[in-house]
Amino acid sequence: MVELGNIVEGKVTSVMPFGAFIDLPGKQSGLVHISELSSRYVKDINEYIKKGDSVKVKVIKIDDDGKISLSIKQAEEKKEKTGRAKKAPHEKKEFVRPAELDWSTSSEGMSLDDMLSKFKQDSDEKMQSLRRSNDSKRSGGYSRKSSHSY
Prior knowledge:
The protein is an alpha+beta fold. It has two helices and five strands; from the N terminus they run βββββαα.
């Protein structure tokens, strides 16, 4: 007998455009609505699930008339949450400088103004290089196209 909140394994018995029917333990069955298949947008249900698949599902609702609503998405979220090592709330994240910035010259002994000036100079050089690269791509592409005669 399945209970609300349980995560159980079941077998897909049929796939419809709106969801999939799952056989559950205890000779019960339930429905995984298309919105409960994945945390991503599901355009075609057949890309995610097919008849005969074994799936882990979470029981998210049991109606008064006995209909069982299931979620693959929530069963996976639960697994991910318990599988991760949790950091204690008091632990601080380590600051890592971006790799693309050149910090090879020691900033010891430099004033804040000097460091900001160096950063601005490096940034300006990178932006200029990026602009040159984009300009050459644009002009190269147009000149080749215009040389054709139709």
